[in-house]
Amino acid sequence: MEAAEMEPSRILHYLPENYQAAGARQDGPLLALLAAMDAMHEQVEALLQDIDTIVSPHAAPNDALVLLMASWLGLDRYLDGTADSPGKGTPSFRAGTRQLRLLVAETARLGRARGTRGSLTRQLELATGLTGFEINDDDGRPFHLDVRAPAAARPLAKLVERIIEGERPAHATWSIEFAEAPNALDPAPDPAPEPVPTPAPEASEP
């Protein structure tokens, strides 16, 4: 039974002429060695063909890559480690990886407006997945940000506070207040009274 003819390696034409001549022999060891090298490269080459998905926060195939991208962008200061200790143990994002993907995707754009009220508000919305953040700087205290957060953000208070501290203008102080959650046991307000109809004026006799 004849052995199957081996295809010339793609690596062969990068080698000196004497190696190319040796690789042309089907019974020589060089061609078999190069074929093994080709097989070793296949997985890496397949990975490189999809490199755009690996470095995309929306398409990255696993959460570890998203956490790595977050560290590249300086967002690791907003990650929790094991036992809520930042920088220690396995990192995680308090609001979930879905929100971290959105934050990573917009970080470069938001960085161009860092320190502004709009940029800080947007970062808080992306990081928590919530709307309703209000940032006021006109309460009479100079260089002070008064942040009002929605009640639903209270479980993420540590994350919210870290982001405000990290993204505020360097010269500004800040304070935060969370809105009160509505109490389901509170009685419903009385319905508004129905308006009393006003009688139409009587027509005057001619």
> What's the order of the H and E elements?
HHHHHHEEHE
Beta-strand percentage range: 5-15%
CA(first)-CA(last) distance: 125 Å
Q: Trace the largest sheet across and list its strands.
A: 1-2-3
Description:
- The protein is mainly alpha-helical and 206 residues long.
- The protein has two domains: 12-49, no CATH class; 53-178, no CATH class.
- The chain is built from seven helices and three strands.
- Helix 4 packs parallel to helix 5 and helix 5 (97-111) runs antiparallel to helix 6 (117-128).
- The radius of gyration is 32 Å and the shape is elongated.
- The N and C termini lie far apart (125 Å).
- The model is unreliable at 1-6 (pLDDT under 50).
- This is Phage tail protein.
- Residues 188-200 have a biased composition (Pro residues).
- It comes from Polymorphobacter multimanifer.
- Residues 174-206 are annotated as: Disordered.
Question: Brief overview, please?
Answer:
By secondary structure, this protein is mainly α. The protein has helices at 17-23, 29-49, 51-54, 63-72, 97-111, 117-128, 157-167, and strands at residues 134-136, 144-149, 173-178.
How are the elements arranged and paired?
Elements: H1 17-23, H2 29-49, H3 51-54, H4 63-72, H5 97-111, H6 117-128, E1 134-136, E2 144-149, H7 157-167, E3 173-178
Parallel strand pairs: 2-3
Antiparallel strand pairs: 1-2
Helix pairs in contact: 4-5, 5-6, 6-7
Give short descriptive properties of this protein.
single chain, 206 residues, mainly alpha, 2 domains, 3-stranded mixed beta sheet, 7 helices, disordered N terminus, Phage tail protein
